[in-house]
Amino acid sequence: MEFAKYLIEPRLFAGLPPDWRWVFGREAPLVVEIGFGNGEFLAEEAANHPEFDYVGFELSLTCIEKAGRKFYAAGLGNVRMVRLDGRFGLRELFADESVREVIVNFPCPWPKARHAERRLVNEGFVRTLAAVLEPGGRFELTTDALFFAEEARDKLAATGCFEVQGPHEIQGGSRTRYERKWRSRGRPIYRLVAEKGAPAKIERIVEGRMPHVRLKTELDKVDIPKVVVGLKEVWPRGAFVIKEAFVAPGGDEVLLRAFATDEDFSQHFFISVSKDRKGWIVQLDSATVPFRTSAVKRAVFAVASTLEKNAQA
Ligand SMILES: C[S@@+](CC[C@H](N)C(=O)[O-])C[C@H]1O[C@@H](n2cnc3c(N)ncnc32)[C@H](O)[C@@H]1O
Question: Mind listing the pLDDT tens digit for each residue in 181-218?
């Protein structure tokens, strides 16, 4: 399990973005790779550039484990990985103008039109790049999917924040597993590089600490599952729903399974409704640690106010 020391869990941090100097124990320029796969490129870059600190985002647990083993075997101290959607991670975990370079190698191209919104390089992503990259900072995309690289070029150019070069076909060695795979099948490989000129303003969605709600009323006579299961709210930038309830044998704790979305970022989590010496309390349950977004907060507050209304009725 030694490789696990490379995996960081930003949901546990008291505030975001984290102070990366604290994470790495020093101040160094930050480089981010999104979708690092088996981690060979990230490991090699980190070993070749000890003067930089590297943060990788990946969704696949298998990839996280493979990459972590490589970092551990190489004894690297300047790399960390986060299991998180890189679009969300880049926006929420980095302050404006704090990243030297963002690298993406062979992102899933999602070629079908109906899957277009799943593509990594969307409008939100290019605005995030324009916010978090340092002045003169660099975005590098390598892919076999020319349409993807061209679409990325157009989206980057439309911000007016970048000088974009490419996509150009590149020759030479293979830096990643997917590069080897596509080259062995004779496919051309393309690279696009964008250098940041002007910054963009973005809004971040993770908020501060999650307050609990202490109820002013008794809930002993309230059928909590009946009142809150199915409770939902939908607003232009988010939504939540309470999916189901689990009641503890004594009846003085109910665990609610909830689902919330903020723009394109979704989270499953539990809300606990429990009784202690001072009365009833509604709070996030520690079994799951969601990012404290406005949708998560609204779910907790809505559960609390719905229960109070029913207790008073
Ligand atoms: C086609 S593979 C490429 C892997 C590696 N970069 C390479 O070139 O061999 C794409 C990788 O991106 C990861 N991925 C897809 N969407 C992602 C996202 N939104 N954030 C982070 N990783 C993502 C996938 O799990 C997968 O490992």
Answer: 999 999 999 999 999 999 999 999 898 777 789 999 99
- Closest Cα to residue 108, out of 37, 39, 166? 37
- Domain spans in the chain, listed from the N-terminal domain onward: 2-196, 213-312
Q: What percent of the chain has pLDDT over 70?
A: 100
- Decide if 78 contacts 56 (C-beta within 8 A): no
**Superfamily for domain range 2-196:** Vaccinia Virus protein VP39 (3.40.50.150)
Residue 25 binned pLDDT confidence (cut-offs 50, 70, 90): very high
Contact present, 56 and 82 (Cβ < 8 Å): yes
Answer whether 37 contacts ligand 1 (Cβ < 6 A). Answer: yes
| Dihedral over Cα of 296, 297, 302, 307: its sign | positive
Residue 138 near ligand 1, beta carbon < 6 Å: no
